[in-house]
Amino acid sequence: KKKIAILYSGGKSFGGIEQYLVSLLNNVKDESVEFEVLSLGNWDLTQRLKEIGVNPVIFSDRRINPRVVSEIGKYLRAHNFDLLVSQGTVSNAYARAISWIYKIPNLVTVHSNQADDYSNPIVRTIYGFVDRAFRFSTVKYIAVSKYIRSKMIESGISAKNISVIYNGVDFVEAVSRPHKRLVIGSVGRLHQVKGFDLLIEAFSLLENRRLRLKIAGNGDELDNLKSLANELGVGDRVEFVGFQKDI
Q: How far apart are the C-alpha atoms of 247 and 244, rounded to whole Å?
């Protein structure tokens, strides 16, 4: 079997990367590949993975810990892993250092345009520098959309090293049900880059007051979005239902 390690560095909320990994590990049935998740600490993701029968290996109780580079590198070498996969700025930084020192190929899955992820210009600049400085040790990229691929090429990554693979979803047959009003649903991490403010502004322009908007997800923008809904006069018709395991 090909042994593939997936390095996860944690996150404040359960978002796209986390859902991507749960879906991947829950649905891949290729007997020629063996996956193992290496996590820097216990997070919502590690608990969800245990529920589906995947037991992550925990290497640290915090995200910033330079010693894990040697710990993980030695572990990968001792267990003969063929590939180290990472996603996200922190995870990529660790994985690239491990790849460079221990000569284990690194593949990066890119879920978003990094320039849009950080509102703080100092953080955005530092993370951008780190990403560019250490990307030399990454041998292959997966982009989750053509748009992301175009942004990666603009940043200097060779097009031949990028494959576009869209996120998969579980197929669920739609079932209609009687209703007195139409409900518009949206799901995602409540982060500025997701544009929920635009959704609420658009919703406020609709004249049909029987419409309702339900937003599933959590994140730092919750209070701001609630305030916006109230300011636009639709606070009584916009419902924030929080994080939902079974969308």
A: 6
pTM over 0.85: no
Distances (CA, A) of 38 to 8, 90, 94, 102, 166: 6, 13, 11, 16, 23
Helix or strand or coil: residue 158?
coil
Q: What is the DSSP letter of 221?
A: T
pLDDT tens digits, one per residue of 41-81: 999 899 999 999 999 999 987 778 889 999 999 999 999 99
Given a contact cutoff of 8 angstroms between Cβ atoms, the answer to whether 126 and 105 are in contact is no
Q: Output the DSSP codes for 61-120.
A: SSS--TTHHHHHHHHHHHTT-SEEEE-SHHHHHHHHHHHHHHT--EEEEE-S-HHHH--S
**Over the stretch 73-106, which tens digit does the pLDDT of each residue have?**
999 999 999 999 999 989 999 999 999 999 999 9
Residue 209 phi, psi (nearest 5): -80, 0
Q: Where are the beta strands (DSSP E) in the chain?
A: 2-8, 33-39, 57-58, 83-86, 106-110, 138-143, 162-164, 183-187, 212-216, 238-242
Cβ atoms within 10 Å, residue 221? 18
44 burial via Cβ count (<10 Å: 0-12, 13-18, 19+): middle
